[in-house]
Amino acid sequence: MSNVRFLIEAEHNLLSAVEGDLLPAEARLVRAGADLTATQSYVYAAWRAAQLDEMYHECECRSCTDEDEADACEAQVASLEADDARDVAREAWLASDEPREWRVSDDSAQDTLYAVAPDDASDAVEAWLTGGDWDASEGQLYLVAYAVAIDPVTGEAVEHTRVCGEATIEQPEPDCEGDEEHDWCAPHSVVGGMRENPGVYGAGAGIRSRQVCAHCGAYSVYESARQDSGTGRYYGATSYEDADEDSLAWVARRAARLAAEQAEDDAEVAS
User: Per-residue b/e over 220-253, b at no fewer than 16 CB within 10 Å?
Assistant: First the structure.
C-alpha cells in the first residue's frame, strides 16, 4: 500500500486536483482515506502512473529538452516511480486470492467467467464445460478447457495464470427391455476373459471391462484409462453396445433356466 500512497504526495507537487467523474472510483477511495483491495490498488496505481507519464512527456523544462542535462526533472522521477509502483501493485494483485474475471475457452467456444477466485478457477471451468449443450449419444465425451485471468487495467489475458478444467459427459444409458432396469452381469460364455475374472482385459495403461444385461442383452463397456488424443490425459469412460446373437441367446437360456427353477419351486410348494 505504501507504493500507492506515495503517489498522493507526488500529485501535490505535480498535478492539479482532478475532480468529479474524471477520477476513477479507486482514486476517490484513496482521497477518502479508504483501504483498497489489491485489485483497486492496481487500478489506481496504473491510472496515476498514466497521469504522471503524460505530464512528463508534456514537460518542457531544460532537463527534458537538453541532452547534456544530467539531472532528471521532477516529472520524470515521479513518472518512473509511478511505473514501479504500478508494477508492484500488479504483482500484488496477481498474488492475491481476490475474485477476478477469466477468459475461458475450448476448441469451439470462448466466454468470460466473472468474480472467480484463483483457487476456484479450475472448478469454474469444469462447471462451464458441464453446462454446455453436448451430445453424448454416440459415446462418453471427455472435455478440456482453459481459463486465463484478465488484467483489470489492460483487459488482456495474463497467460501465466492459465488453469485447466476437465469434465466428462456420460453417454446416456440405453433403455432396457420393457420396464426393466439393467442388470449388468459378466457370464464367461458371453464376455470371455479369464474364468476367475470374466470380461476383464488389459487395455493400454488400464483395463477394459465388458458386461451384459441379463434382461435385454445390451453390453456395457468400461475403460479405466482411455487416452485423450489432444491432451494425452487418461480418463475412465463407459460406453454401450447393442445386443448381439451371443448375448440374446444367453438371455434366453438364463430366462428359461430361471423359469424352470421357479416352476420346480412352485411344484414343491404345491405338494
Answer: bbbbbebeeeeeeebbebbbbeebeebbeebbee
